[in-house]
Amino acid sequence: MLEVSRENIIDDTLNQLVYNEQDLKKPLKVHFIGEEGVDEGGVQKEFFQLIIKQLFDPAFSMFNYDEEFNYYWINPNTIETSQNFELVGMLLGLAMYNSVILDVHFPMALYKKLVDHPVNIEDLKAMNPTTYEAMQTLLNFEGNVEETYCRTF
Hints:
Elements: E1 2-4, H1 9-19, E2 30-32, H2 42-55, E3 63-66, E4 71-74, H3 82-97, H4 108-114, H5 121-127, H6 129-140, H7 145-149
């Protein structure tokens, strides 16, 4: 049972999931503090929608959204702590465990990493074709990339 307030949903959830070591292998029940109602699934779904919307909001700075390819990716310039990324992973896992479908899109490379499959340059092609083409040009270059382009990898 998660007891969360709508005004402080991220911190309340983080505190209960991380610091109280909840048993996450049971059906999740959610209660919004100060509200009546029994969680028969609707409150749980609303909880996931609210918290995911906040965590993936560009103003929160954890993720960037690529409108051209319709996916989220980790913001390399975020100032958020690793605990918040752990929270996102826990929430996505809880949603799957509790059969809640969320509207969150990641590139295939992320899913491959999660199941320990290797990623390759073709995954880059799906994520960022422009960068893929530039990397492929360097890979196909017949001369010395380091000397010609002053690039090392």
